[in-house]
């Protein structure tokens, strides 16, 4: 087994160098935001959709657009508004009066990377249409099904401070996102670099495609081969189960703070995301540290905190910190 892991890790290190090239290419257009870039790459490699929460002006759209250019993938940006219809998203059948037939006109979801900008501004019907496509990875128009070509990745953004005129995503639908990212302000040094780039008006940034869609899909197979030890699997299961039954792990203080624990989808996603993170780091096996690095992103939108937690000004991230510090590590 050890020799197999060493051989796999050697292959992974060679391929992960291409991931470093991808990060370097994106950094030509995006200053900082390494955390967001790395998580978007993990989503792309695993086909896991990502919900990005951050204030305006934090380069969310620029980062997604840059990622699409750097991997030579088809990219579509959809600005969600309250007057949108599902047909604006998935398409519709257009009547041809000359021969009396209907022709399917495909919507913007027929692409590799979709940026669903301000997804919480669209009504429930539109949100449901997108989330159904995310789950099934196919679209049905007038009884005819169209399969979306891989890779297919939805990156949705939402503004955490605006509540008027928004339609919050139901918890059951948010669960379909592999990860939820919380994006923060850049550092002062990064902000100074942004000024330097923006004020150099004669500088045009032309990103090159450093990876192909075919290579991205091949990486997915390598990620499946990343070794996940039985003790590591138990650790993942314990972390998720502790969100439902904290008293079983001597964490009785968390019981009144958690309204609903994470779903079984969290267990699967945590395993997949940690394997992808190990791959990006050039490792052939998953360690507890890899799990801890992605645990907040996988769990924060899957734990519903109680009113008591809100009264104590506790967030889901605070509860995850407690779990990671108290659950025994293998």
Short description:
Helices cover 47% and strands 15% of the residues. It has 330 residues and is of the alpha/beta class. It has two domains: 198 residues, P-loop containing nucleotide triphosphate hydrolases (Rossmann fold); 101 residues, Magnesium chelatase subunit I, C-Terminal domain (Helicase, Ruva Protein, domain 3, Orthogonal Bundle), CATH 1.10.8.
Tally of strands? 11
Query: Helix share of residues?
Result: 40-55%
Morphology = globular
What's the mean pLDDT score?
Answer: 85
Description:
The chain is α/β, with parallel strands linked by helices. It has two domains: about 15-215, Rossmann fold (3-Layer(aba) Sandwich); about 225-325, Helicase, Ruva Protein, domain 3, CATH 1.10.8.80. About 45% of the residues lie in helices and about 15% in strands. It contains 13 helices and eleven strands. The chain has a five-stranded parallel sheet. Strands 3-4 form a two-stranded antiparallel sheet. A two-stranded antiparallel ribbon has the order 6-7. The chain is globular and about 70 Å long. The mean pLDDT is about 85.
């Amino acid at each position: 087994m050890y020799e197999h892991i060493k051989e796999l890790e050697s292959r992974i290190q060679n391929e992960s160098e291409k991931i470093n090239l991808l990060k370097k290419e994106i950094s030509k257009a995006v200053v900082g935001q390494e955390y967001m870039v790395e998580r978007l790459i993990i989503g792309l490699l695993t086909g896991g959709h990502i919900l990005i929460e951050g204030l305006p002006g934090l380069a969310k759209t620029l980062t997604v657009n840059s990622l699409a250019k750097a991997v030579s993938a088809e990219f579509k940006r959809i600005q969600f508004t309250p007057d949108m219809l599902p047909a604006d998203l998935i398409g519709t059948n257009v009547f041809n009066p000359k021969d009396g037939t209907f022709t399917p006109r495909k919507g913007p979801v027929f692409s590799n990377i979709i940026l669903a900008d301000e997804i919480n501004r669209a009504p429930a019907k539109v949100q449901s249409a997108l989330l159904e496509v995310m789950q099934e990875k196919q679209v049905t128009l007038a009884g005819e099904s169209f399969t979306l070509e891989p890779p297919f990745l939805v990156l949705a953004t939402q503004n955490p401070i605006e509540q008027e005129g928004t339609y919050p995503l139901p918890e059951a639908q948010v669960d379909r996102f592999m990860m939820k990212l919380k994006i923060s302000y850049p550092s002062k040094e990064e902000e100074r670099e942004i000024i330097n780039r923006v004020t150099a008006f004669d500088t045009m940034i032309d990103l090159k495609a450093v990876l192909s869609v075919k290579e991205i899909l091949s990486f997915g197979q390598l990620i499946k081969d990343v070794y996940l030890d039985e003790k590591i699997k138990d650790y993942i299961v314990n972390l998720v189960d502790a969100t439902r039954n904290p008293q079983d792990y001597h964490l009785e203080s968390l019981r009144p703070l958690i309204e609903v624990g994470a779903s079984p989808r969290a267990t699967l996603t945590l395993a997949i995301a940690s394997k992808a993170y190990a791959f990006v780091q050039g490792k052939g096996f998953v360690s507890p540290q890899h799990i801890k690095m992605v645990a907040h992103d996988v769990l924060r939108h899957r734990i519903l905190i109680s009113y008591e937690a809100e009264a104590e000004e506790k967030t889901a991230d605070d509860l995850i910190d407690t779990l990671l510090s108290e659950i025994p590590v293998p």
